[in-house]
Protein 1
Amino acid sequence: MASSVRKVLITTRLFDDAAARFLAAHDCEAVPCGLPPDALDTPIPDAELHALLDGARGWIVGMRNVTRDVLAAHPQLTVIARRGVGYDQVDVAAARDLGRVVTIASGANDPAVADHTLALILAVLRRLRESTAAISAGSWKVLSGADLTGKTVGLVGFGRIGRAVARRLAGFEGRVLVATRTPDPAFPGVSYVALPDLLAQSDVVSLHAPLGPETEHVIDAAALGAMKPGAIVVNTSRGGLVDDRALLAALQAGHIGGAGLDVFEAERDPALQGIADALAARPDVVATAHAAGSSREALARGNLISAQCVVAALDGLPFPAGCLIADGR
């Protein structure tokens, strides 16, 4: 590699040629980490990661933890670009302290996650998993599900994805309740309420908040107990917003009617993998493996936005809107 070409380590799944070409056109070389194309980067050992980051000016990262130790060991690493919108696995304070840039791929997966949220809501309400399992076992008995039309859906959090879900719900002729610290008075067709009111009134509770100290276990045993009997929970945001152990207990007790889960606490705490397995095995749960933002279109958008963020950081150009999280330069 010529000395004028900047190395950019790629540890995301399914990084595509278009994004690599964008980097090449701006004197950067996309260097893959050697994992299979569909493999997550979380299990890369520290020693291997340090070798991969040797000489890298940029790092387009998937789900791998970005720690202070990793950043301190690679002073030439200028920019860490998350291909996604969550950045709880990045030590942002350390990046700022050490003079680095942290970005996200703002807006890349909004449509995909909103679509996936509606898919999970409908799949749980209409008992699609149970119906498929019954037919596969030779039973063609009709299982009665529930309509989404006319129902009350509560959205906890109202950022870009929450608003995209609300727009999709407009065609179902129901009520959309929103609990958020930052209401948008100009947004049509929603009612802003306190969380206890949302829990008491909603047939569906869908999570669209970032994970942090104030939102961890926002849906805990008490919140689940305050929900309407038979209501369903959908989480396409972050494991940890829902107390998975409490959700399993509420489902086992029959108080909660079902759940659509794309994220689990076990992603951050392997000790809870048994709880995640028990939830995913239930017939009233539709589970996916943190796949809501992984449509082909969303991944391509995220790849390109991440590449644009790397070039912006290295060349002193403006960042794509909403992407800059920390700039310690």
Protein 2
Amino acid sequence: MKIILTVVLAISLLSLLFIVFSRRLGFAWLSRLGVHVVVAALGLYVVNYSGWIAEAYIPLNPVTLTTVLVLGLPGIGLLLGLKLILI
């Protein structure tokens, strides 16, 4: 099983490097990604410490941060809805 996962990781890494260098994306996408990560973290921070919804605390971890990073503000709404309905 470890060998299969290592092969998948290696293939993924090589294909990602191929895409980055073949399209000449440069490193500008890293700064945009950094800005989006900071904005997503600030959005979660505002929801957690603003007191708008008292029983809603969304932990700041890689999974929640990625959800908000990909979905934006609707991602915060999704996480709040899941938190309030499931817990």
